[in-house]
Model the fold of this input.
Amino acid sequence: MFQTHTSPEYLTSDILTGKIVHCFSTRYGGVSTGYLSSLNLGVHRGDDWNNVYENYRRLGSAVGFTPEQTVFTRQTHTDIVARVGAADRGFGLFHEVEPERDGICTNEPGVALVCFSADCTPILLHDPVHHAVAAVHAGWRGTAKGIAARCVETMTREFGTDPADLQAAIGPCIGPCCFETGPEVPETMLAALGREALPFIRGDGAPPMPEKYHLDLKGLNALWLRRAGVNQIDISGDCTRCRPDRFWSHRFAGQARGSLAAVIMLKE
Done:
């Protein structure tokens, strides 16, 4: 179950427990203005850097991290998951991130992992046994590539994680109500997951090849996690496209929008 916190507004998942802090941001409670109003957390959205910094300061003060502790993804819709640590703090907010990485993980306390979304699927993971965390961005391409499962594999390799111990929270993203696509997206999912993907794909129109489909990205990512051995999964019920007043939505606003952030950190 997800809980809402205010000043600024953010969400947390009850499944993520132990010596961590985490959040899924909303649009509310920041200082950005205009079409970025108000809690924009993206540094490449046309915002003043000082506004973005203040937004991180406000969110971090409420959640339990500082802007200086953050490490960002550099999202290019890959299935790349990189291990980061204390030496990487500041990359993204203070220094440009060079290597592509749609997922990042660490077992070092005081490293606040940050991934971004504005309809794509944010996923946070915690291994309470080996004390490791991860943040993952899964667009539809990353979902088809199984980046959620790749993250589990990376944590197993790097930290000795047993997938059965993992706690996973899938945050707000575009829902099947609004994620309408042509046939190329479900075809890609079916090629990757086989018939197990069918419950998360709905076709609109005349069979056998409807012109439009609706896909459940949260359900597909949960399927990848279950396939990887993860059983503890919490899924947000929020659709970003249904609530563009509360969440940034690329489908709603195009490029005239800010970025949501999902953050997770082991406590020092």
Remarks:
- The chain has one domain: 2-178+233-266.
- The chain is about 20% helix and 25% strand.
- The longest helix spans residues 49-63.
